[in-house]
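This entry is passed on directly below:
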Amino acid sequence: MTTLKRVAATQPRRSAPNECLARLLAIAAIAVLTISAWMAGVASAAMADCSAAALNALRVDRMTVASATDVSAAAPNPEYCDVRGSVDTGNNQARFRIQLPLNWNGKLLFYGVGGTGGSELASSANPVDGAEALVKGYATAITDTGHQNTNNADASFALIAPGKVNKPVLDDYLYRAAHLVTVAAKELLKSFYGTRPARETPP
């Protein structure tokens, strides 16, 4: 017994602050793993609802989903739901494409189409966005800005006739389509994943 007491007495004792820090780190690690597992479970369950009927049933204001396709994972992209449809802008329609990844990071990236717009299937003006967004878990959205045009340098959509402005379409191009599609996309994310997209934190 005396020997055991001597050994115990010679062992360095962990200070109380160190013990508290170790416990906090362990709790934090468990919390991160739990949240990650929960997010994965939410996203996986959401993919089961990747259909036009299921998404229209969410009744997102102004939004009509024309198609929703569950796209299998293909390196480097994860599995995602490819959603296409339109948003009612008042006197016009703005088409959109929204991508909902299985590995959603809680954020939305809205692409700018560049030029005069005209296609919801255009690639991002920034090629890095297109290459990295889904890989990093961002949901993405893009709009045709309220008109279809294969040449995004052609601004003839802005006129009904020579000297007569096509005001509803021009307003959509200038500001309204991007705003309303963004609002609708956020509501879709909230209903699809069960939580609103987070604000981006500056680096």
